[in-house]
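Consider the following assembly input.
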Amino acid sequence: MMKVIKQPGEYSYVYSRYLDPIDTVKPGEEFIVHTKDAFENRITKETDLPSEVLDEYVNPQTGPIYIEGAEPGDTLVVDIIDIQATRDYAVSAMIQDFGGLTRTQTTRLLHDPLPEKVWIYEIKDNWVTHNESLSFPWRPFLGTIGTAPNLEAISALVPFDHGGNMDVPDVKPGNSIHLPINVEGGYFYIGDCHAGQGDGELCGGALEIPAAIKLKFSLRKGKTIEWPRIESPDELMAVGSARPMEDAARIAYAELINWLVELGWDELEAYQALTQIGRLHVGNMVNPNYSLVAKINKEYVYKGRNKA
Amino acid sequence: MMKVIKQPGEYSYVYSRYLDPIDTVKPGEEFIVHTKDAFENRITKETDLPSEVLDEYVNPQTGPIYIEGAEPGDTLVVDIIDIQATRDYAVSAMIQDFGGLTRTQTTRLLHDPLPEKVWIYEIKDNWVTHNESLSFPWRPFLGTIGTAPNLEAISALVPFDHGGNMDVPDVKPGNSIHLPINVEGGYFYIGDCHAGQGDGELCGGALEIPAAIKLKFSLRKGKTIEWPRIESPDELMAVGSARPMEDAARIAYAELINWLVELGWDELEAYQALTQIGRLHVGNMVNPNYSLVAKINKEYVYKGRNKA
Amino acid sequence: MMKVIKQPGEYSYVYSRYLDPIDTVKPGEEFIVHTKDAFENRITKETDLPSEVLDEYVNPQTGPIYIEGAEPGDTLVVDIIDIQATRDYAVSAMIQDFGGLTRTQTTRLLHDPLPEKVWIYEIKDNWVTHNESLSFPWRPFLGTIGTAPNLEAISALVPFDHGGNMDVPDVKPGNSIHLPINVEGGYFYIGDCHAGQGDGELCGGALEIPAAIKLKFSLRKGKTIEWPRIESPDELMAVGSARPMEDAARIAYAELINWLVELGWDELEAYQALTQIGRLHVGNMVNPNYSLVAKINKEYVYKGRNKA
Amino acid sequence: MMKVIKQPGEYSYVYSRYLDPIDTVKPGEEFIVHTKDAFENRITKETDLPSEVLDEYVNPQTGPIYIEGAEPGDTLVVDIIDIQATRDYAVSAMIQDFGGLTRTQTTRLLHDPLPEKVWIYEIKDNWVTHNESLSFPWRPFLGTIGTAPNLEAISALVPFDHGGNMDVPDVKPGNSIHLPINVEGGYFYIGDCHAGQGDGELCGGALEIPAAIKLKFSLRKGKTIEWPRIESPDELMAVGSARPMEDAARIAYAELINWLVELGWDELEAYQALTQIGRLHVGNMVNPNYSLVAKINKEYVYKGRNKA
């Protein structure tokens, strides 16, 4: 029977090695993790004002999960096999001082805050529907996923080199996420499942759902990466998370160049190839770091080369 | 016979109302414009060092073209009908202090400059090929297109609210570009054709070609827009150009919200829709302003509404 | 008798070589220029709403003034000898979508604009006074000063490598401003005098005054600089103008290193010296480019060296 | 006899509530803390290459120190009474990928790293001297100071709302630093003493010294602040730490406005006052967040008001 992991007590609001693992998973084993939505499942109707129903912290994570055999310097590969909503509705909301077109904690301005607002969406027949205009296909993915840093405990709202709150729609079933292992056992966390999201997560709230996620871990022993990578059946991707946004773009493309160099490319030839065929889109433009995704189609990676 | 416009004397390196129009075009009339490549057609082989063969200014523009009947406050719609290369090769190059992963004139650092480097690509059978690895499909578009500002004369290297050097691959045959008219006659400029380019134009040089471009103008009298827009058969898009990159993202999405509001959407409902289904990719990350493109599929624009 | 230059017709809203010089000045000659305030002297009482009394453009400049003998590649040194207000009051105002703690044209947000507001200050006995709390010493300087670019015509609101709207309080009597000469005759412009200003010009409106300014030009023939510099009796300074603000900081310090290298310093030793004794403050945080000023006291420049 | 606190075991490289306090201090009590230099005292001569002698982490902190009676929601006021170097030399260094004019971990570029370089300075007679050119007055201050966040453990290299690695020269003897208390006991950390530093800490290494620092704590019970503040005999200051740098500037001035509002000012009048008389300089332009300091002279704070 497949292992099912549910958070035994309080969820975590940090990616931290300072917490006790809630479970242990072996590489190669398929298992299921249950997550709450980013609002802790507290918003259930459109009259629930976020400032009233939410607690101090949001974006609860399931974890840490101990990965058997994981050691600093390894790379964790997470195959996302399946995502199921564990509720028949999704929630989006504008919460104060959070979003892409509002003042925030750091972009401090003298304006009054934007209004709070909640949208409830029904999930049915592979569509997520609020009303006739706001009706979108079911495209589930994981907003927040990562491993513990070695030294820091990083808020679950922050994406950085350990993964975290990247809000990148490419973290979806069928794709593999590569994450650095910084501590023994890796201390894996996951949460913030979305029934769908546009690039940028503009208002700050995607189609938030609690979920049951089927995963499989594998380890690349002694293989070190600096920033998260994603492999889809067709593409190689690297995710950079930083501010200002151009630094996230630089990281994403520089890391993708690194990946190509590992596959045998010359650095400047890779720079040239990505100039002509690379793609670069915005994962989030709302979190403490912005996340950008640089991609290349595998067709252009392996042309004129032996397949890696 | 179709009107063919070639630059009679010197090309222009600015988007300026202070130059004399080289020709006049009527709305509704199809015509052809010839452009040089961004390197002024001066790089013809891989041993041509940019610092030696290039002049002080690059990115020569054909124009200004006077648009009959255009008045400040109108919107110009440019249908891009066709692009033909007027040479059988494309050129990419790393030029000093220009590019996405290098120090620049404003990101001033103490490093030595990166090396200069030239790649020549053959154009043949709808492919653009340097060698077996660097071989890409023919996907032509216009890197630089726009109208004159009212007051300023803006370098042809700079994208801003008048259009200019956006380097957005969606400016391609089959799509319509909407540009603000700021001066009587509009003073349209065009140049910098690319045989293809990835998002970001990473090394600073796309697949640069001289070209013959078939266009048609139409005017929306008295309809004012603040930033360039693009309409494809399937999508509505807005382009924001600014630094830091997050400001370009904010402009792009804010303008797309404006467009939806003009089509009958409520502002916060549009903010919500773009959160869930909008897309946001990078046109350029190398020019004095970065250009980002926000998009929405028309299917989601007109759902639950009468078609506009 | 001293030459007095007043704008003969319309003021200029651009730094442009495309306008006709209004007068010619010889290096070495002291002369007086009259300028309007940044609001075109249109705000005269606190009930004057900027959105009603102001025209489309603000920040009118006196110029262009032709500098005899100035050629591209020279450096212009402007000695600011004296500034006199030509009115007994100064004006500050919050105008819409302009300022350090508000949404702007490029930091586009969904907030309503901040309110408009005007403050009138009496100038008397070397104090500038609105009420008991808002009363500041008379510390006049020039907000906008520069030469024409070679190619572009740049809005008088924008600071860049030609000078322009830097809003740097060090541009004051007793100091010398070094500006690049880009076109024959230099095409000097000046305007936007302030009776005083804090670092950043936070709300977007300093203590704006019309003024009579006594200046003297000198030329350093064949000496090229890339960005404006300032010399006070005690300090050497360089001004960088860019976005994001860290790029303005990089430019300012990199240019000051260049200056030290010209004076005989080793580059990395200059980098070290500025690390320990350099100063870096914000001129403006409100204009299309931010301006930062890097400084070093001359005592540390010439220590252990022959005085330059 | 005065309490003297030395780190009993390993120094800390994070601002963390997850470590055990090394000592307890009562408000009102003067005490002395010993700190290592930012390089862990490992660089002792100019041939010590940082990449060889430094360990994985730098900037060791003394702490956490438990503050008796401190509760979340209080403000800690730290009087800096005295700083003594505990060594007769200071060290500055260029370490790889760290500094204001170099590529970094997030401003990722394809350049080779800048060279490593070490400067040793003798401390004597209130001067800090490397050679005749590099000789600066003794102006000691604390580069890193702060309290533990509630949730996160933040690297000692990062400045944010808890204080941390601000590298602000105003954190000096005679001044008081106000810090938020986020956890019971506050968990105070301190380190990174500098014998002097210019604005920005340009090359990334100030005049680094180990030190004995005399401090006194006091608590403002139930008084909450959002970002660090500094009070000198003459000035009120607020420190903002963020990227891009303009966000650090916005935070600093917005917080200083908040302070003035607490003292009875109207918000827009405070915005106006800081426009005309505020000062804004750069603490650091090298750390993961930039730190900017906004200031106002007390003379302008209390004019026309009863002294607070």
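The mean pLDDT of chain C is 97. Ask yourself how this observation constrains the way the partners meet.
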